[in-house]
């Protein structure tokens, strides 16, 4: 059973940066997808980005492409979401999620229902 804990959220002015961390325990990440999602008040949870742990390959939602970067630290079993040039519309609770191990290639998981384990979320607020 994988447990995920997010950290690093907070209040930042528009144009600023934050780095979120997603620390995994209860198992070593190897072939999973780690996805980042966010949920603003009154809205559905939406895909932000993903990293395929085994290859380190990433993909992003169009709304954050070029501003957000996902990385991983194998030794720490931790994924990171670096968020630059933040906008007020980035304000949301940010979640990381882990899938079961993946043995295929050429695709990414971008839907909430494709992930098995979720963190508790961390609030990111961007002021204008």
Describe the overall structure.
The protein has 128 residues and is mainly β. Helices cover 0% and strands 48% of the residues. Strands 2, 4, 5, 6, 9, 10 and 11 form a 7-stranded mixed β-sheet that branches. A 4-stranded antiparallel β-sheet has the order 1-3-8-7, with no helix packed on it. A hairpin with a 4-residue loop joins strand 5 and strand 6. It is globular. The N and C termini lie far apart (40 Å).
Give the topology, please:
Layout: E1 3-7, E2 10-13, E3 18-25, E4 33-39, E5 46-52, E6 57-60, E7 68-73, E8 78-83, E9 92-98, E10 117-118, E11 122-127
Parallel strand pairs: 2-11
Antiparallel strand pairs: 1-3, 3-8, 4-5, 4-9, 5-6, 7-8, 9-10, 9-11
Outline of the structure:
This protein has about 130 residues and is mostly beta strands. It has strands at about 5, 10-15, 20-25, 35-40, 45-50, 55-60, 70-75, 80-85, 90-100, 115-120, 120-125.
Which stretches of 5+ consecutive residues score pLDDT under 50?
Answer: none
Number of strands: 11
What gap, in angstroms, lies between the N and C termini? 40 Å
- The tally of helices reads 0
Structural class: mainly beta
Note the main sheet: 7 strands, mixed
Which features does this protein show?
128 residues; mainly beta; four-stranded antiparallel beta sheet; 0% helix; 48% strand
């Amino acid at each position: 059973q994988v447990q995920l804990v997010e950290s690093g959220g907070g209040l930042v002015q528009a144009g600023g940066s934050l780095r979120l961390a997603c620390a995994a325990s209860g198992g070593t990440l190897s072939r999973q997808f780690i996805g980042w999602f966010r949920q603003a008040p009154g809205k559905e949870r939406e895909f932000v980005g993903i990293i395929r742990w085994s290859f380190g390959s990433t993909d992003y939602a169009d709304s954050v492409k070029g501003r957000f970067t996902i990385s991983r630290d194998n030794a720490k079993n931790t994924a990171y979401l670096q968020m630059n040039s933040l906008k007020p519309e980035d304000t949301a609770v940010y979640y990381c999620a882990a899938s079961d191990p993946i043995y295929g290639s050429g695709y990414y998981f971008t839907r909430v229902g494709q992930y098995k384990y979720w963190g508790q979320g961390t609030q990111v607020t961007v002021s204008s």
